[in-house]
Design a protein that fits this description.
Elements lengths: L1 H6 L3 E2 L8 E5 L5 E5 L5 E4 L2 E4 L1 E7 L2 E6 L5 E2 L1
């Protein structure tokens, strides 16, 4: 909250981030939640990454870049 007030713009509370939710502190002292109907990010190796259904070729097998459920074709 203090960071939002100091810089005059909203600041995300990273401790509240999930696959579907982001919470922001606003400079006026309020909070805003943005909630998606399905996963828009995934926790990978301790970092959040955006969902990416792009297909990639890895060692002769085709798989998605980052999706909630693993998907691959041989």
């Amino acid at each position: 909250m203090l960071a939002a007030q100091r810089q005059g713009s909203r600041v995300e509370d990273l401790s509240e981030r999930t696959e579907t939710t982001q919470v922001f502190a606003n400079p006026d002292g309020s909070y805003t939640s943005e909630i998606a109907a399905g996963p828009v990010r995934l926790l990978r190796g301790g970092s959040w990454v955006d969902v990416d259904s792009t297909l990639q070729d890895v060692n002769g097998s085709v798989s998605t870049v980052a999706t909630p459920t693993s998907l691959s074709f041989s």
